[in-house]
């Protein structure tokens, strides 16, 4: 704020600003470093030669040349003692100071100034840093300059160039595109609400104040003498010859060394100590003439180790030879005290060693291999002490790149695009970058493979990121060879795979067959699978058909068809659900299989009417009081093969003695009861589904009392094997007409209802069966065998049995069978006597009725 107040006061009072400098008749030359300007308000009566901050009215500066001439005259005139003014001292020498009258005054002000040409040589910049920073809020600055060459030539119209300054952390004034070798007059104007002040006149030749960029690419290398050689690159652009200054230091204990006046781009670093880490920076400036020092370069960290490898990391390909050097910093080497080890377990033969100097040795690995994969290997140079190798923990890395990349391609079903993929076996694939697949088209078959880098026909296929490298080549020629290879970068090293050749027509992957349908034929119950062929490719296709029962994909069965659109095959169970799918590929020729079609399944539906009605039996429940009998029919469910494929329900077909038949629908049940009357002679159970009813059905001849029938069986025997199996056998009497089947019936005598009844049927030639059931101990069971004829039911034979204990194995013998047969004989005798008495009573009753009728007549 003080500077603003002083300047405003000077403008209001009309005072001038004078400058104390080395020779007041000359403009101030801007130096290649920071300089400072002190200004103070002089009292009346002081007379000096000076250069002034001149108050300037707001005017149109049409006569710019006269303005500079006036500025020059004002800078070289003397003021009278009765005038007040600003006197300024420009302080640019480190050992020269402004007089105390400028520095010690309370009302003096200070401004730090720095001017330079930028490193790219496109700008000239001055930064102003006033001591009183708050004045920036109330004042604006601009910089003006003129070309001295035009002034010396006394041109009539000399342009004065004006650039506004911007306020950042300092006030920054910029002159664009200066000519480095020309001399420019420069002054700065301070603009306030009260007017404009001009600074003392200054001049500069930009080439003398260039601030170049710092050096680049710092690196060290061990020489054969075991000494570190530091090298670097000059900045770009390099406007003139440079000199360099190197500074290197170590942290603990902290020590700093500086080497100045270096004219080369390298420096030998002597007396570095092993085991320490050094920090190296470099800066540069103009070698001959004035100029700014550059900033310090990015630091280089150097760890001085006992052993150093060159190169420390090698990237190579399979089949190459690799040479690595190692330098010992403070160890003398011979042909006998060095050993090289690969991966810490394989000693390299000494024939591969070479002693370069007392501190350096090398080894060469011949025809390196990757053992099928790109890999990382470590190489160590050790000191050999008789039979023992002493190895430092440091090592060189050898990365072997297997550039044999398998490229596989497939042409889409539309024959328009070829999709190529590859998978990398490279070490650290995440470090690989810039994958590119390049190719060119041969107007012939794949007879020769060459990578034509210089061919104008080579094209690049952009990679699409996924698990594999992949790209799409389009357009393609179906019959021409396409030679392709993969290029990639690993750690800034370019690699190229071996070329491969592909003919698009040989790698076609057709579209999957469409509109696949699977169904069971109604006439034979076979599986019929049909599909539509893809339109392309135009050659003969081989179709692979797979089907599985109930959708179990692990049980696929496979069929093949050539250029067909359907296939029919027999199946074990036509009533099961089948799933099917189809794919195709080229028949007799190279190519890929298509994807599988979508899975389709057969619909569960009836194929035919049931082949037969169910096998059934009856249970007769007679009431001796009412003399009425109810019969319950019990039948077994049909199998899928019998039902073809389902059963919707059952129908009972009755037949009377007069051969009159009628039907009764009973629904989808397994038992049915109805009253047994004299009118019903026989009954059949008919099964039906959505197609129709069964034509072949079992017929049961109904009889209230089959005991009066002719005896057919004798000698019924039962042997108990265990609690879940009983063997039943019988003998058939010699008859003219043999039974068509036998029904074996068993039930618990503790519960004689129909639900407790169980039965099985045996064919006519069987007289021994195994009954499998759960027979409880101490429970009495009745076994009955019924002989069945085509038109009647024969006299049954029965026995009772009891299992003594659960799980006991009992085998029936002759003695044991007597315990069963004797009670049966006794019961049979009683039954026969009872029947005889009843029949006699019926005969007597009939005679009485006939006599009564005769009397009535």
Structure description:
This protein has 857 residues and is mainly beta. It is 9% helix and 43% strand. It contains six helices and 60 strands. It starts with a helix and ends with a helix.
Relevant terms:
single chain, 857 residues, mainly beta, 7-stranded mixed β-sheet, 6 helices, 60 strands, 9% helix, disordered C terminus
SSE inventory with pairings:
Blueprint: H1 2-13, E1 16-20, E2 28-29, E3 35-42, E4 54-56, H2 64-74, E5 85-91, H3 100-103, E6 109-117, E7 123-130, E8 140-147, H4 148-152, E9 161-164, E10 166-167, E11 171-176, E12 184-192, E13 195-198, E14 202-204, E15 216-222, E16 228-233, E17 242-250, E18 255-262, E19 266-269, E20 277-286, E21 300-303, E22 307-310, E23 313-317, E24 322-328, E25 338-342, E26 346-347, E27 353-355, E28 360-365, E29 375-385, E30 388-391, E31 396-401, E32 407-411, E33 418-422, E34 432-442, E35 459-461, E36 469-473, E37 481-490, E38 493-496, E39 500-502, E40 514-520, E41 527-532, E42 541-549, E43 557-562, E44 566-569, E45 578-586, E46 600-601, E47 616-623, E48 628-635, H5 640-643, E49 649-656, E50 661-667, E51 671-676, E52 680-688, E53 699-701, E54 713-722, E55 725-732, E56 741-748, E57 758-763, E58 768-772, E59 780-788, E60 797-802, H6 814-856
Parallel strand pairs: 1-5, 2-14, 23-31
Antiparallel strand pairs: 3-5, 3-6, 4-13, 6-7, 7-11, 8-9, 8-12, 10-11, 12-13, 12-14, 15-16, 16-19, 17-18, 17-20, 20-21, 22-24, 24-28, 25-26, 25-29, 27-28, 29-30, 29-31, 32-33, 33-36, 34-35, 34-37, 37-38, 37-39, 40-41, 41-44, 42-43, 42-45, 45-46, 47-48, 48-51, 49-50, 49-52, 52-53, 54-55, 55-58, ...
């Amino acid at each position: 704020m003080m500077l603003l107040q002083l300047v405003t006061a000077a403008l209001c009072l009309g005072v001038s600003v004078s400058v104390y400098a080395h020779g007041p008749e000359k403009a101030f030359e801007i130096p290649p470093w920071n300089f400072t300007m002190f200004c103070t308000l002089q009292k009346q009566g002081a007379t000096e030669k000076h250069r002034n901050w001149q108050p300037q009215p707001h005017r149109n500066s049409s006569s710019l040349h006269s303005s500079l001439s006036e500025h020059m005259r004002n800078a070289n005139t003397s003021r009278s003692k009765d005038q007040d003014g600003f006197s300024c001292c420009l302080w640019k020498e480190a050992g020269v100071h402004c007089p105390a009258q400028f520095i010690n005054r309370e009302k003096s002000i200070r401004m730090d100034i720095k001017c330079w040409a930028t490193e790219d040589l496109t700008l000239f910049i001055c930064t102003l840093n006033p001591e009183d920073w708050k004045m920036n809020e109330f004042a604006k600055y601009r910089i003006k300059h003129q070309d001295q060459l035009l002034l010396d030539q006394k041109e009539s119209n000399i342009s004065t160039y004006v650039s506004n300054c911007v306020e950042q952390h300092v006030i920054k004034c910029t002159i664009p595109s200066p000519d480095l070798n020309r001399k420019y007059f420069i002054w700065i104007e301070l603009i306030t609400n009260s007017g404009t002040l001009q600074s003392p006149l200054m001049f500069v030749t930009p080439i003398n104040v260039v601030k170049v960029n710092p050096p680049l690419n710092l690196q060290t290398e061990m020489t054969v003498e075991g000494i570190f050689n530091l090298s670097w690159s000059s900045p770009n652009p390099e406007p003139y010859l440079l000199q360099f200054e190197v500074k290197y230091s170590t942290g603990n204990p902290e020590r700093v060394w500086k080497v100045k006046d270096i004219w080369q781009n390298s420096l030998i670093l002597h007396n570095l100590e092993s085991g320490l880490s050094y920090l190296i920076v470099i800066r540069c400036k103009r070698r001959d003439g004035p100029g700014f020092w550059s900033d310090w370069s990015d630091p280089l960290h150097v760890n001085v180790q006992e052993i150093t490898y060159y190169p420390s990391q090698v990237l190579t390909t399979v089949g190459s030879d690799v040479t690595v050097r190692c330098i010992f910093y403070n160890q003398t080497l011979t042909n006998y005290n060095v050993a090289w080890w690969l991966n810490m377990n394989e000693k390299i033969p000494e024939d591969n060693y070479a002693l370069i100097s007392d501190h350096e040795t090398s080894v060469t690995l011949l025809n390196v291999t990757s053992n099928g994969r790109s890999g990382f290997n470590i190489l160590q140079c050790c000191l050999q002490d008789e039979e023992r190798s002493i190895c430092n923990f440091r090592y060189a890395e050898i990365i072997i790149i297997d550039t044999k990349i398998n490229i596989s391609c497939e042409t889409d079903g539309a024959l328009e695009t070829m999709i190529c993929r590859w998978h990398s076996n490279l070490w650290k694939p995440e470090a690989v970058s810039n994958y590119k697949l390049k190719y060119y088209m041969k107007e012939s078959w794949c007879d020769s493979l060459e990578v034509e880098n210089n061919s104008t026909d080579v094209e690049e296929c952009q990679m699409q990121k996924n698990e594999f490298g992949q790209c799409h080549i389009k357009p393609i020629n179906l019959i021409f060879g396409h030679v392709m290879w993969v290029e990639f970068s690993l750690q800034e090293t370019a690699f190229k795979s071996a070329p491969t050749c592909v003919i698009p027509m040989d790698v076609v992957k057709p579209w999957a067959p469409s509109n696949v349908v699977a169904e069971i034929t109604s006439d034979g119950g076979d599986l019929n699978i049909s599909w539509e062929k893809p339109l392309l490719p135009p050659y003969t296709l081989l179709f692979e058909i797979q089907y599985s029962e109930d959708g179990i994909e692990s049980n696929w069965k496979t069929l093949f068809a050539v250029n067909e659109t359907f296939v029919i095959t027999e199946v074990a169970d036509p009533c099961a659900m089948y799933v099917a799918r189809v794919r195709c590929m080229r028949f007799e020729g190279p190519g890929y299989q298509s994807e599988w079609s979508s899975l389709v399944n057969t619909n569960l539906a009836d194929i035919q009417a049931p082949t037969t009605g169910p096998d059934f039996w009856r249970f007769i429940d007679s009431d001796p009081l009412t003399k009425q009998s109810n019969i319950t029919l019990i039948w077994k469910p049909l199998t899928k093969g019998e039902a073809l494929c389902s059963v919707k329900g059952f129908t009972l077909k009755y037949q009377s003695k007069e051969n009159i038949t009628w039907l009764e629908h009973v629904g989808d049940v397994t038992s049915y009861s109805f009253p047994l009357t004299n009118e019903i002679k026989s009954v059949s159970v008919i099964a039906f589904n959505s197609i129709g009813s069964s034509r072949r059905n079992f017929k049961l001849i109904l009889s209230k009392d089959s005991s009066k029938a002719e005896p057919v069986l004798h000698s019924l025997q039962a042997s108990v094997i265990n609690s879940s199996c009983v063997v039943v056998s019988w003998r058939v009497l010699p008859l003219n007409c043999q039974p068509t089947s036998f029904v074996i019936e068993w039930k618990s005598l503790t519960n004689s209802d129909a639900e407790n009844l169980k039965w099985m049927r045996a064919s006519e030639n069987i007289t021994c069966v195994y009954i499998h059931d759960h027979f409880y101990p101490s429970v009495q069971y009745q076994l009955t065998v019924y002989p069945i004829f085509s038109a009647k039911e024969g006299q049954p034979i029965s026995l009772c049995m009891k299992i003594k204990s659960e799980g006991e194995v009992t085998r029936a013998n002759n003695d044991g069978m007597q315990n069963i047969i004797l009670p049966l004989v006794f019961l049979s005798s009683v039954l026969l006597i009872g029947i005889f008495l009843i029949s006699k009573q019926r005969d007597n009753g009939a005679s009485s009725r006939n006599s009564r009728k005769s009397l009535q007549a």
